[in-house]
Amino acid sequence: MKLWGGRFTKKTSELVDEFNASINFDSRLYKHDIRGSIAHARMLARQGIITPEEAAEIERGLIGIEEDLDAGRLQFSLTAEDVHMNIETFLIERIGETGKKLHTARSRNDQVALDIRLYLRSEIYTIKVLLFELMSTLKVLAEEHVETIMPGYTHLQKAQPVTLAHHLLAYLEMLRRDWERLNDVERRTDFMPLGSGALAGSGLPIDRDYVREELGFGHLTRNSLDGVGDRDFVLEFMSFSAILMMHLSRLSEEIILWASDEFGFIELDDAFSTGSSIMPQKKNPDVAELVRGKTGRVYGNLMSLLTTMKGLPLAYNKDMQEDKEPLFDTVDTVKNCLAIYSPMLQSTRFNVERMYRAAARGFTNATDLADYLVKKGLPFREAHSISGKIVNWCLEKGKTLEEVTLPEFRAFTPVIDDTVYAEIDLKACVEKRNLFGGPAPSAVRKALDEATEFLGTIDPAKR
Ligand code: ARG
Description:
- The protein has 463 residues and is mainly alpha-helical.
- The protein folds into three domains: 100 residues, Orthogonal Bundle (Fumarase C, Chain B, domain 1), CATH 1.10.275; 234 residues, Fumarase C, Chain A, domain 2; 96 residues, Orthogonal Bundle (Ribonucleotide Reductase Protein R1, domain 1), CATH 1.10.40.30.
- It contains 19 helices and six strands.
- The strands form three sheets. A two-stranded antiparallel sheet has the order 1-2. A two-stranded parallel sheet has the order 3-4. Strands 5-6 form a two-stranded antiparallel ribbon.
- Helix 3 crosses helix 6 and helix 10 packs antiparallel against helix 11.
- The longest helix has 37 residues.
- It is elongated.
- The two termini are 47 Å apart.
- Bound molecules: arginine.
């Protein structure tokens, strides 16, 4: 007999049982469901809706169920449909009539809205720990490479010299914004929906605020229709995840490029790369490729739930049961990707020599030559044009700018003297870009101090 079977005279088709059931995936909410039920039962007793003895019996029953589920001693059943009714069914089997009182002044609609919020809240914490770890890893790596000169790129063409620290700190900036976004998600998840009932609250004298306090939420949902009908906090989490994965995917793309023989900027540790079943020489950056690849499913999950929610009339609709698989998949994917990323980066060897050589060829100091001519009084457009001509001449002769002799320089313009060499020296080129936000070691050291301070204030372990 179904918990809702009263008005039915026929058995549900087995096809419907199977089609309707969510237990195969929402079983992962059982701890949150039990926690919510215990708070609800305590509140019912405080309000005199059930007796304190009944509440205690319900609580003991639920704790026993949780222990048995933890130990794998209990099997969920498809006919009980979802995690909420499975647990309620277990409870009634165990404690009989009293168990039937738990669902007073409650609906699965507000129950599931609560469970997802409890679940997400705890997963957000785990993700924060992992994201913090990755941010710290980037910062520590950057500290080691404040002086490591590498080419910066635009259009994937060598552009101007930067440092590896500066490049890594660019990713730290992206992750810091992701961190902020996750905090926003957390703030908007911190609303307690129980008491919304099926859609219109309850006429029984319940105390929503007590339940909120018991479950450690900051706020109550302010509208019962919205409390059960909204999933935008889930969408925001998925949106945060999509952007985070986009960032990780870009970093992955660079790792994949940098690990190639053509770049040779890094060597991935053996423990974080894989071989080929046919080509003995291969060492592949599979981890970075998979992170890049998994970004697709995280985008897809966001799109899937946005599309599910679009056009739903208020309040709850069964369509919304389709929120869980994409949410769970997103949580798992983000956690897996973050967890593997820090140790992969920590074990990567950076080929400082190769990076410098790459910056030294490819005229990354051509802008500095133009800037030099500007300092000598030429208008920038003219300086740009003369530098371009010198680069073109160098390309023909197979020279770098540093290898051009003074007479050769002066054939292009007499304003050049021997001070030019100090201006186009790669190290000098980087060092003079010491403005706020720039790649100069002196600026990067300040950025690192600020990053250290920031990380010190947000460390999830210290909160
Ligand atoms: N399993 C459902 C879900 O995940 C729980 C809520 C069902 N409510 C209902 N009235 N059928 O959305």
